């Protein structure tokens, strides 16, 4: 059965392999059979970037280009910028009224971010309400399925609780239940073995040049017990090997053999991986170069997308007002 699929990403800079493997490649596949709606969540980005908000407009266009370079097709899916559809904020208001503070305060992602990003003051009203706006994004389109990375599961769970509470208070079965769609690939770590993230500077970006990729691969941390070239390695303790598993599954047997048999050194192993990653990302890089030539066209696509999104959003908001106020 065809579903309504909704997802979004914050435009905070270049997309990396983690975005692609963790979510985006699912988005591309879902377009075939479902009505997909993909938002560039600039309000969510502003919640953490409000002190340096000017680059966001450039990141928005960059993100649209990255998405389309990966295969998001504006003829099949609705692609737009969250702040172009003000109904997101209207629904957020209604949902804010019925969301208990305690649900937000115990949100694990919230607590984690406050700890992990000490450079920014995230003790704000809006940031605590981050998942409420995210719930509004999803529910505005009555989405049934949300393809996201593992890290977003607590937010989706909150969205479902908020939807149930709305339905309980105002109208039975108004918002459908929405389910996460996760990818099969386990999460890839960054080149320094920490979580892959722009803020750690440890990511392989989808737009990286061949020489960027070679340099980053060379820096990757390998099995710490393999000190000499003649020491056998343990692939299961090596991040390089997990990259092979995700990006070049046809080579994993060979890599396992040369690692455990110490027939190739780590430098060579990483060089071979780099060449594979370069080939893997080449089609995206080429398409991106094409798309970058005409940014006005990208802006037009986003404007068209916003119109389509808005026509759905307005219908839902009319029904929401009816359900809440009875008029
Ligand atoms: N919070 C998500 C992220 O950081 C982005 C997002 C905003 C989102 N609204 C959404 C994801 C709605 C799924 C559905 O990646
Ligand atoms: Fe990792 Fe490859 Fe070195 Fe083995 S040979 S430890 S898989 S980099």
Q: Which descriptors apply to this entry?
A:
single chain, mainly alpha, Rossmann fold, Tyrosyl-Transfer RNA Synthetase, 2 domains, 14 helices, 7% strand, binds tryptophan, binds iron/sulfur cluster
Please indicate the count of domains.
2
Identify every distinct bound molecule in the structure, by name, code or SMILES.
tryptophan, iron/sulfur cluster
Q: For the CA atoms, what is the radius of gyration?
A: 22 Å
Tell me the name of the CATH class of the largest domain. Alpha Beta
Instruction: Characterize the largest beta sheet: strand count, sense, and whether it forms a barrel.
Output: 3 strands, parallel
Structural class: mainly alpha
Full CATH superfamily name of the largest domain: HUPs
Approximate strand percentage: 5-15%
Between the first and last Cα atoms, what is the distance in angstroms?
33 Å
State the share of residues found in helices, binned by percent: 55-70%
Order the strands across the largest sheet as they lie in space.
Answer: 1-2-3
Kindly report the average pLDDT value. 95
CATH topology of the largest domain: Rossmann fold
Work out the helix count: 14
The helix/strand order is: EHEHHEHHHHHEHEHHHHH
According to DSSP, the number of beta strands is 5
Return residue spans where pLDDT drops below 50 for at least 5 consecutive residues.
Answer: none
Silhouette: elongated
Indicate the CATH architecture of the largest domain: 3-Layer(aba) Sandwich
């Amino acid at each position: 059965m065809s579903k309504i699929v909704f997802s979004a990403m914050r435009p905070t800079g270049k997309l990396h392999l983690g975005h692609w493997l963790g979510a985006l490649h699912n988005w591309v596949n879902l377009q075939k059979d479902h009505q997909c709606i993909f938002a560039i969540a600039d309000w969510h980005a502003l919640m953490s970037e409000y002190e340096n908000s000017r680059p966001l407009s450039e990141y928005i266009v960059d993100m649209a280009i990255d998405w389309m370079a990966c295969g998001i097709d504006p003829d099949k899916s609705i692609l737009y910028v969250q702040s172009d559809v003000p109904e997101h904020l209207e629904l957020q208001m209604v949902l804010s009224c019925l969301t208990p503070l305690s649900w937000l305060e115990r949100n694990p992602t919230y607590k984690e971010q406050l700890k992990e990003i000490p450079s920014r003051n995230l003790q704000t009203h809006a940031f605590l309400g981050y998942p409420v706006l995210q719930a509004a994004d999803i529910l505005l389109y009555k989405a049934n399925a949300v393809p996201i990375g593992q890290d977003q599961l607590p937010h989706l769970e909150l969205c479902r609780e908020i939807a149930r509470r709305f339905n309980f208070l105002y109208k039975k079965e108004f918002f459908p239940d929405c389910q996460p769609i996760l990818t099969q690939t386990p999460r890839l770590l960054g080149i320094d073995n920490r979580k892959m993230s722009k803020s750690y500077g440890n990511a392989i970006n989808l737009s990286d040049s061949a020489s960027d990729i070679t340099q980053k691969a060379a820096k990757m941390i390998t099995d710490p017990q393999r000190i000499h070239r003649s020491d056998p390695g343990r692939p299961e303790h090596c991040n390089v090997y997990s990259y092979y598993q995700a990006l070049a599954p046809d080579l994993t047997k060979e890599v396992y053999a040369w690692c455990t048999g110490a027939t190739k050194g780590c430098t060579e192993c990483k060089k071979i991986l780099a060449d594979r990653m370069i080939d893997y990302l080449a089609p995206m890089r080429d398409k991106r170069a094409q798309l970058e030539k005409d940014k006005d066209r990208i802006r037009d696509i986003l404007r068209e997308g916003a119109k389509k999104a808005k026509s759905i959003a307005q219908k839902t908001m009319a029904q929401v007002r009816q359900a809440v106020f009875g008029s």
